[in-house]
């Protein structure tokens, strides 16, 4: 059997109100798929009820920490279960997140801009999709510049909001500027395999954007964005092959909020590829 090396670095719990399965259910799938570990990164609570229907309530946070700790104890010696968080970014939320991130030791903090969230859209969408796309990439870069995050999740998620309005050549200069700003911070980017299930069916980010990330030396973390147990580690082998084609030599993950790396050939071999 190949030696487990990879982590599921993006997974959820029912506390976010749109995921199913206990942390133990997710850990069991990680074990069955030959992963070394799993980091839970459930949607963080936000102030003033912002997008409250799709994330944990502030009163749920201690329960979240307890649930992950229980799964860690249950799977000790089998799967390395760790606590992380997916924290939304929008201008002005920084003080809330600074306090939240300090409440418990976290291993991986994902930064997310969620343009599909009604509260975000009400605040920032002016009726022009190109303006919204440009704002998204500016907010993505601003999120990195806060230094609150280890990795930025699904970094071209905006393309799925109005697929008919997505013109990569038109938005490319804005993406390039955002990636230059992100590269200057040292924050990693996620290769999110759940993109194949969205309106534009391709891994987030697209192969073209992935090459742009590699050209700037930005590290990449792999995650399936699992909202149900069976999606843990989903699409990892095709994603690793895509990274190889884009010219990457390694894949990253975070423990204790410190970046670790695995040679890409070893990562592929750990999955029997």
Mean pLDDT metric: 98
User: CATH fold name, please?
Assistant: TIM Barrel
When the domains are counted, the total is: 1
Task: Give the terminus-to-terminus CA distance.
Answer: 12 Å
Looking at CATH, the homologous superfamily is Metal-dependent hydrolases
Supply the CATH class: Alpha Beta
Explained architecture:
37% of the residues lie in helices and 16% in strands. By secondary structure, the chain is α/β, with parallel strands linked by helices. The chain has one domain (7-270): Alpha-Beta Barrel (TIM Barrel), CATH 3.20.20. The strands form three sheets. A five-stranded parallel beta sheet has the order 4-5-6-7-8, with helices on one face. It has a three-stranded parallel beta sheet with strand order 1-2-3. A two-stranded antiparallel sheet has the order 9-10. Strand 1, helix 1 and strand 2 form a beta-alpha-beta unit. Helix 5 packs parallel to helix 6 (168-185). The longest helix is centred in the middle third of the chain and has 18 residues, at 168-185. The radius of gyration is 17 Å and the shape is globular.
Q: What is the fold's blueprint, element by element?
A:
Elements: E1 7-11, H1 23-32, E2 37-40, H2 61-74, E3 80-83, E4 85-88, H3 94-101, E5 109-112, H4 118-124, H5 129-145, E6 151-152, H6 168-185, E7 188-192, H7 207-215, E8 220-223, H8 236-245, E9 250-255, E10 258-263, H9 264-270
Parallel strand pairs: 1-2, 2-3, 4-5, 5-6, 6-7, 7-8
Antiparallel strand pairs: 9-10
């Amino acid at each position: 059997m190949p030696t487990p090396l990879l982590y599921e670095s993006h997974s959820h719990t029912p506390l976010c109100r749109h995921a199913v399965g206990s942390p133990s259910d997710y850990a069991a799938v990680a074990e069955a798929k030959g992963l070394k570990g799993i980091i839970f990164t459930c949607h963080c609570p936000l102030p003033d009820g912002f997008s409250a229907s799709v994330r944990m309530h502030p009163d749920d946070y201690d329960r979240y920490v307890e649930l992950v700790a229980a799964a860690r104890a249950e799977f000790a010696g089998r799967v390395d279960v760790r606590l992380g968080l997916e924290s939304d970014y929008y201008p002005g939320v920084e003080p809330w997140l600074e306090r939240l991130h300090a409440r418990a030791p976290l291993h991986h903090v994902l930064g997310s801009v969620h343009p599909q969230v009604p509260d975000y859209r009400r605040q920032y969408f002016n009726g022009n999709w190109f303006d919204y796309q440009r704002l998204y990439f500016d907010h993505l870069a601003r999120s990195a510049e806060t230094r609150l995050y280890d990795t930025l999740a699904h970094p071209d998620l905006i393309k799925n909001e109005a697929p008919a309005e997505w013109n990569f050549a038109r938005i490319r200069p804005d993406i390039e500027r955002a990636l230059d700003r992100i590269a200057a911070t040292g924050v990693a980017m996620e290769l999110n395999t759940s993109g194949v299930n969205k309106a534009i069916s391709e891994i987030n980010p697209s192969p073209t954007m992935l090459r742009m990330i590699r050209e700037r030396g930005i590290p990449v973390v792999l995650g399936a964005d699992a909202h149900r147990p069976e999606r843990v580690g989903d699409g990892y082998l095709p994603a690793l092959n895509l990274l190889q084609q884009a010219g990457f030599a390694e894949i990253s993950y975070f423990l204790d909020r410190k970046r670790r790396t695995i040679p890409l050939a070893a990562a592929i071999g750990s999955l029997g590829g």
